[in-house]
Amino acid sequence: MPKPVLENTKEISPKGKIARAKLRTAALEVMERVGYHRMRINDVTAEAGVASGLFYHYFKDLKSLTLDVLQDFVAHSLHVEDIEKDVPKGDWYERMLAHNRLVVLAYAERPGIMRALLQLADEDEDFSQLLRKNFVQQLSWLTRQMPKLFPAAKMSEHQAMMVVYALAGTGETILRDYYINHEPVLRDKELSVEEMTELITVMFYRGLFLQNPPVEKLRYTDNLDEMRKN
Amino acid sequence: MPKPVLENTKEISPKGKIARAKLRTAALEVMERVGYHRMRINDVTAEAGVASGLFYHYFKDLKSLTLDVLQDFVAHSLHVEDIEKDVPKGDWYERMLAHNRLVVLAYAERPGIMRALLQLADEDEDFSQLLRKNFVQQLSWLTRQMPKLFPAAKMSEHQAMMVVYALAGTGETILRDYYINHEPVLRDKELSVEEMTELITVMFYRGLFLQNPPVEKLRYTDNLDEMRKN
DNA sequence: ATTATTATTGAAATTGAATTCAATTTCAAT
DNA sequence: ATTGAAATTGAATTCAATTTCAATAATAAT
Question: Dihedral angle at the C-alpha atoms of B48, B54, B57, B59, nearest 10 degrees?
Fold first, then answer.
């Protein structure tokens, strides 16, 4: 659980809290609409319905507010720990599914924010690190199991990490191009969150286990068991 | 082969050509160093060793020059057609390998430019489309084969596209985080271009065929045949 | 009720870069 | 050698945005 790294915490008058919250909400709204790079202080204050100068009472600059808001978003929307617990030990497919569902949901419901995440990560090394740390951490449960899961493969720790990292990337591109960029060849048919989650999870599972997941769990991809050589 | 979309073509005096070329080279250099977002006209003219005003003789604005230069880069560094022909028909692994080697090489040698590609795509819808069109086109040879390759799966065209798109994303994240962001957990061990290419290709191949590639072709990942369930 | 503190406003100052342009230089053509 | 068109310069200008701040309003403390 990452604790707030911010000094965005002056005094805490009751009124101050409200105004500050208004600005944060407004920033999120504007970011969803125009992304981080085109967001202006004026946009935020206008959206919040306050004078532009007030911004500086509560935040140092746009980046500081954005970091604040997006760190929150990551902590609340992309943290999986709770969910993992609901899944029967050893049911890898369900576990991955639960995991991926969360990510897909974030893309589906907040594409603008997911985009802003990438924009900010590109701009700010610290935030970039934070995202990757989060990513790696989400993967760590799997990475740790690898030696036990595939003892015959005698993988090094590093190789296991590389493999899992590569697999985990599977989703990223298609999610970005589907939900953020609305790539026509993908949008040709609309997928529900559940279908998209399933697709990504199945592809991940196949790469990891050289098997299709149990067909009875599949709805959108139940035919992919036949996608195999020979 | 995308033809130049630019009106960056005024008169073509011998001297003009040189200066223009100097600016393009300088832009590439600066972009490699600082990326697209932090690049300034002054940086480019300084790097080129000319006065700042001269910029406008040859280019409308930074974005125009950048588009110009990056479209070139994509056309020359990320176009695979020639390579594909060298590969024995039906040798899927070699084909994918050749394909991926090109991409990995681009990341390894020009990480700053690859980063700038993403930056510009985020900023400019047209360029974003161009990149994706390129991406989809690279995938089309495979997508087209899918019905014949896996007739039993009875995949729709769209599903085939989704599957291939997901698989093709495999590399993107790890390449970005390895070569651009220098993620420590990945950099823990240094991989050669060949090794990275192999890893990505193997993971792609596994997801597609539910098989490991022929072990005799593998050097860095020859143990992954044992990475499978049961 | 009075005073002090904090919040809020919006016009004005500042910033940092893009852009223009009049003056100067280069160079190919004659 | 002279000419004129194109290339080049960099100081001056413009511009869009951030940032400051003096004045005013709201709220809390006594």
Answer: 50
